[in-house]
Amino acid sequence: MPDFCFENEYDCEVAGIDEAGRGPWAGPVVAGAVVIKNRRLCDELLNGLDDSKKLSAAKREKLYLKLFEEQAAGNLQIGIGEASVQEIDELNILQATFLAMRRAVEKLPVCPSAALIDGNRTLPAFPCACRTVVKGDSFSLSISAASIVAKVYRDRLMRELGKRYPGYGFEKNAGYGTAAHIEGLKKQGVTPEHRRSYKPIKEFMEQK
Asked: Is the model's pLDDT at 201 over the cut of 90?
């Protein structure tokens, strides 16, 4: 279970940062940044936070709402950043992810002195000192909180895109290449929310 071991190596406020949506064929990539003030959490978050992929959708939603309740109470700070499909196609997914992470930090009320970032890629031109943590969402409570924020926020966006572009199953597959998504592409073609730089979408467009 995640804890504050990495955060406790710093004597300043630390943001945990994670992303959601690098792999899907459609929709934006989203990053979350969370600063847990004084490294204190209510029991529900302390015992519930984990890698978002290990949690059910219902559990993620519940924790997401609780995180925002705690932000309203002044106990933590949340920033959310996005990079659009157009930015993904122009920059590539890695650089677009970095952009979303920088935007998430910029949305925090105060720029943190340091950041713990899930993964192994150091971000260029970041607004504060940063350290990467492989599988950080399983080890750091701040990163785990950020992973839930990014995942739930993006899933909500994709449900809205599912209403705007019915037939692709975005509300269920979040833009990943499921059978329903492929069938939608065959029947209806590529939408403005598809990542044209991704190989499966490129190939589909070439076939058409």
From this structure: yes
Best CA proximity match to 123, nearest among 105, 147, 109, 149: 105
The residue with tokens 């209510």 is: 42
Residue type, position 93, single letter: I
Residue from 120, 80, 119 nearest 102 by CA: 80
Residue 33: how many CB atoms within 10 A of its CB?
Answer: 31
Distance CA 162, CA 173 (A): 10
| H/E stretch holding 17 | strand 14-20
CB 50 within 8 A of CB 137: yes
Give the DSSP H or E segment for 15: strand 14-20
Give 31-81 as a DSSP string.
Answer: EEEEEEGGG---HHHHHH---GGGS-HHHHHHHHHHHHHHHHTTSEEEEEE
- 34 residue type, one letter: V
- Contact predicate 127/111, CB 8 Å: yes
The answer to whether residues 127 and 112 touch, using CB atoms and an 8 Å cutoff, is no
Residue keyed to tokens 């519940």: 62
Identify the pLDDT of residue 52.
87
Tens of pLDDT, residues 37-56: 999 999 999 999 998 889 99
Residue tagged 């150091």 (tokens): 122
Helix 141-164 and helix 57-72: axis angle, to 10°?
110
Residues 6+ apart with CB under 8 A from 95: none
